[in-house]
Design a protein that fits this description.
Layout lengths: L10 E6 L2 H11 L3 E6 L2 E6 L2 E7 L8 E5 L2 E5 L1 E6 L1 H13 L4 E8 L7 E7 L5 E6 L10
Parallel strand pairs: 1-4, 7-10
Antiparallel strand pairs: 2-3, 3-4, 5-6, 8-9, 9-10
Protein name: Glyoxalase
Organism: Pseudidiomarina halophila
Length: 143
Amino acid sequence: MSSDSAVRPFHLAIPVDNIARAREFYGDVLGCSEGRSAEEWVDWDFYGHQLVTHLAPEQTGVAHHNPVDGHAVPVPHFGVVLTMETWRELADRVAAKGIQFVIEPHVRFAGKPGEQATMFFYDYSGNALEFKAFKDLSQLFAS
């Protein structure tokens, strides 16, 4: 699928089981700026994208894992592709905040098409997040 040359922000709404804890995780741990909010939802600037945490405790939790490159990758998951510097800073920040990694920060597919730095962890409601970085962004869709 092709698109215009400018990457447009995505919008994603996810369930959380506690709005105060969502504020703590996305605001304090990840450092996202809070936008509009109401009693049951909060908009976040998620690295330039619009992430909305909606209070829906019955919808939270981990669903499944698939094997990828020797790791059990949580499904579903979401995240963003960062610069290598920002990725390293986030890995350090998350570790310093005591968040347990599901998959520790490492380089996946080393020396192969699509080589990437990646890490996985859960938010406080059990939503799986993956953050990636590429030395060469042209490898994003390499096969």
